What we know:
The protein has 328 residues and is of the alpha+beta class. Helix content is 22%, strand content 27%.
Amino acid sequence: MTLQFSLSPHHKRFVLSSFIFLALGLLSPEPALSVAAAHSYSFPETSWEQERQSMKTRTVVGVPEKHTVEDGETLLDIARDYGLGYLDLERLYPDLDPWLPPVGQELILPRQWVLPTTARADVIINLPELRLYYFSKQNEASLVQTFPVGLGSTEKPTPVGIFPISEKRKTPYWYIPKSLQDKYKQKVMAPGPKNPLGDYWIGLGHSSYGLHGTNNPWSVGRLATNGCIRLYPEHIRPLFDQLEMGQKVQLVYEPVKLGLVGGKIFAEAHPDIYNMIDDYLYSAYQKLTALGLSQHVDLHKYGHVLKQRNGMPVDVSKNSQEDHKSND
């Protein structure tokens, strides 16, 4: 199946700001834009070697893109225009002034993702990468949509776990937590431009957590909430319309992901945002062993990815440089 983006009658930049909409299916003989995956949105870890040998799966979606900074643009503008969160660019370009990036500089945008392997629900939110994946079916094709999210601060982290969707509200009232009532001088905030929930609320189980919009789009892609999951207004709207009561939302903690595309192994690493992993490097190398990939991965390249932790998928296959030269 070919790569599909949700289309818009507006100009290109608006299309790029919309969510990623990718078709997943068996690998076809079509050119480079073919996107393939396992039979479902996640593949069993025990079958990885079989999947690798067959080369019939693809668990890396999207492609990196280039953007030339224009006069008046900030990194926050660029991130939103391309369906990214702020930290997606800050991790790649830590030395750039986010408010005054050099006009004319070419940026590589991380519009490629390794799918989480611990998925057990329709909606997966991988906390370390601050990104949501929604897996669905359409005309027998498996589809994935992906959105950047804002999450809880290090003092009030977003929890891991599986939650059913228990509530959906448009123009929601915000029932302010006791810890914040003194700050806002009220217990309940009515819908409106000051309401941090935005125009949509999707409640998770019996918890106080939920997915919602925002009145501060620049907080998407940051650790800026009291534990809830915050999306751009243009992203929460279609997600709200598609999700149904009772569907499961799983919040996972997977800072290092490994995926397949074209017979190559890709690694994607993110910071341990909540310091939940005792030994980051040991855990990452143990993942190679658990998936049976140690003998197929260039450990030097893999180590570099783990050091960078910038969220960009990298080919870490052995002999990948020689393979690339032979294809030139």
